[in-house]
Write a structure and sequence with these properties.
Arc Repressor Mutant, subunit A, Rna Polymerase Sigma Factor, Chain: A, globular, single chain, disordered N terminus, about 190 residues
Length: about 190
């Protein structure tokens, strides 16, 4: 016999490896598209819950890492994937608040930062009011009123009952209203 003959098992292995590479490339491409569309909204939600852009970026990155690791198990629907990512992010934010650990490192000189444009005063006041809420209440308000999620979707994302979402959002809105009224009366 002339030429080389590839054993059947080796041929099957090489075909499987090529298919796997194509699958991984397609998966990575899908995930990259997902991050491009969902990354900014996730980071904004994280910021509204923790009010620290750097922490929000870190938590979003951690959430996206967990989503990538579970990518093949998550449904193919974009809404399912976003809901999964949002749930992971919410749990990371709540866990971070629960741990109350500081990752700040004291340095001799503060690094230079770019020019920051101050948001309008109303937005600052609203963010301060939002930070007065407990982490779970803040998450409920962000999901219900910032992301315009239903009571059911918010309850599923946080792993609580719909009644809890209703009562805690009512209570949180009361706290926000009172803070905003008090702030308005001080400014008058």
């Amino acid at each position: 016999m002339t030429g080389t003959v590839t054993p059947p098992r080796a041929a099957a292995d090489s075909r499987w490896g090529a298919g796997r590479r194509r699958t991984k490339a397609a998966r990575d491409e899908e995930f990259t598209a997902f991050v491009a569309s969902a990354g900014t909204p996730l980071r904004r939600s994280a910021y509204l819950m923790c009010r620290d852009w750097h922490l929000a970026q870190d938590l979003t990155q951690s959430a996206l890492t967990k989503v990538y690791l579970a990518w093949s198990r998550i449904g193919r629907d974009g809404a399912d994937r976003y809901a999964y990512a949002r749930t992971v992010l919410l749990r990371l934010v709540l866990d971070h608040k629960r741990l109350r650990r500081s990752t700040e490192i004291a340095v001799e000189r503060v690094p230079e930062v770019g020019q920051v444009i101050d948001p309008p005063e109303d937005r600052i006041t609203l963010l301060r009011a939002l930070m007065m809420l407990a982490p779970r209440d803040r998450a409920i308000v962000v999901l219900r009123y910032w992301e315009d999620q239903s009571v059911q979707a918010t309850a599923e994302a946080l792993g609580v009952s719909e009644d809890m979402v209703r009562s805690r959002s009512r209570r949180a809105l009361g706290v926000l209203r009172q803070y905003l009224l008090d702030t308005e009366s001080i400014m008058d």
